[in-house]
Amino acid sequence: MMDLHTHTVFSDGVGRISDNIAEAERRMLGMVGISDHIHYFTPATFNRYVSSIERFKKESEITVLAGIEANITPDSPDITDEMAKRLDYVIASAHVWLEPGRVNVYLELIKAALQDENVDVIGHFSNVFPYIGYPEEEELMEVIELAEANGKAFEISSRYKVPELSFVKACIQRGVKLTLGSDAHMPRDVGRIGWSLKLLRKAGGRMEDLLFSELL
Ligand SMILES: [Zn+2]
Ligand SMILES: [Zn+2]
């Protein structure tokens, strides 16, 4: 199994990269991704982050991937070409605060990210619906179609328990890839992807429906 969403001391997590990998190994995951928040990095710490992950890739018994969690801002996701080039994958998440009823603004942000060539995965999609309102079915289908057209994946988040079953089912039907993520901010939470895995199975998903399943 995989956990592609974990944080370390390079952003607001409390563990080191090695702690996250050790926990992933202890839980017998096949793959762990490190995905710290992009806005914590300076050019120097980003270099250190990437080279440190590269070193663990060679030393570790499981697949280790270098990721990042970028923010979908009103302009565009805040990931640069230079950074994306050095990473295995980029998660883009909408962390903006929106007034109740502004679900259309949220969907526009997501659509922009789905058309950004540096983005691979949309993080915890739909976690804000309880606060900003729920979109129509057709609007969600538009989002999935855009993901299909651009080869993007959606995360099934064990932290936020999103997206909904029907959304995941529709992704699978369309061939849109999925990832499993704990969004762990401490090492002991790395690999806690039970909720995500259960939803994937409930939706009829298989290994092939996961991004990077060929590396597992
Ligand atoms: Zn997030
Ligand atoms: Zn996160």
Low-confidence stretches: none
Helix and strand element order: EHEHEHEHEHHEHEH
Can you tell me the overall shape? Answer: globular
Bound molecules: zinc ion
**Tally of helical runs:** 8
List the SSEs and their pairings.
Elements: E1 2-3, H1 17-26, E2 31-37, H2 43-59, E3 63-71, H3 81-85, E4 91-93, H4 103-114, E5 121-122, H5 129-132, H6 137-150, E6 153-157, H7 165-174, E7 178-181, H8 194-202
Parallel strand pairs: 1-2, 2-3, 3-4, 4-5, 5-6, 6-7
Question: Could you walk me through the main structural features you see in this protein, from its secondary elements to its overall organization?
Answer:
The chain has 216 residues and is an alpha/beta fold. The protein has one domain: Metal-dependent hydrolases (TIM Barrel, Alpha-Beta Barrel). The protein has eight helices and seven strands. The protein has a seven-stranded parallel beta sheet with strand order 1-2-3-4-5-6-7. The longest helix is centred in the N-terminal third of the chain and has 17 residues. It is globular. The mean pLDDT is 97. It binds zinc ion (ZN) (2 copies).
Structure keywords:
single chain; 216 residues; alpha/beta; TIM Barrel; 7-stranded parallel beta sheet; 7 strands; 15% strand; globular; binds zinc ion
How do you describe this structure in short?
The chain is an alpha/beta fold. 38% of the residues lie in helices and 15% in strands.
